[in-house]
Design goal:
The chain is α/β, with parallel strands linked by helices and 97 residues long. It is 29% helix and 25% strand.
């Protein structure tokens, strides 16, 4: 089997043009603490105001990722409130720790 190579008068290009493809992803942390305290990035929120804040941030960054960290001493209801607020705000990428 013979291989043919195309001869060219053009010099070889020494540089490789690699355009980095960077996806900007915003990861937010909700902490569910004892006593149904919900904290987003350290600031305490009631479930209704948390939902509004998450909706605002989701509108700014549609690829938003939400991590929910639940304190072992927290009530189940607090975690449920955080999940419900995120769902109503339209956040699709949620992980629970």
């Amino acid at each position: 089997m013979a291989f043919a190579s195309a001869a060219s008068d053009r010099p070889a290009i020494a540089d490789i043009n690699v355009t980095p493809l960077v996806d900007v992803m915003l990861v937010l942390l909700i902490e569910v603490e004892r006593g149904d305290v919900l904290r987003l990035e350290g600031q305490a929120y009631a479930p209704a105001t948390l939902q509004a804040e998450l909706a605002r941030r989701q509108a700014q960054v549609p690829e938003l990722v939400l991590k929910i960290a639940v304190d072992p001493q927290a009530d189940y209801q607090g975690a449920t409130n955080a999940l419900a607020a995120a769902e109503r705000a339209g956040v699709a990428n949620i992980s629970i720790e």
